[in-house]
Amino acid sequence: MKDEVRKEIEDLAELMFSAGTPEERKKADERFAKLNETLTPEEKREGGKIIREVLAARRAVRRAKRTDINMKEKLAGIQDMISLSYIARQYFGRNRSWLYQRINGTTVNGKPAAFTEEELKVFSDALRDIGSKISESSLLIN
Length: 142
Prior knowledge:
7 helices; mainly alpha; two-stranded antiparallel ribbon
């Protein structure tokens, strides 16, 4: 397979997986259909392999644990102010022990518990959401 075709397929796979809106997905699908018309059966098989490789790499990144972040230190100033039990239940669908293990880096099954990139984003969004709810409530008091 030519390098430029391989690069096009890799770029297209990334575009497809990162498309967030229906319009972006439609645009990626159209671009994929157009490319697919120009490929030979052998190139299509190779393209499928490339897409599977890109998908596997993205899954690995999503599942990688971020042990480089000391969450206990980052939350030291607010941990007593917020209900981690509520965050665990409401935003993760888990119990508070699960969340505390990740915050404290507790060893679980021989490895330190840590957040994945996705979980860090959920946690960050949860804090932001709680902060905005607190701000809205404070405005109601005035």
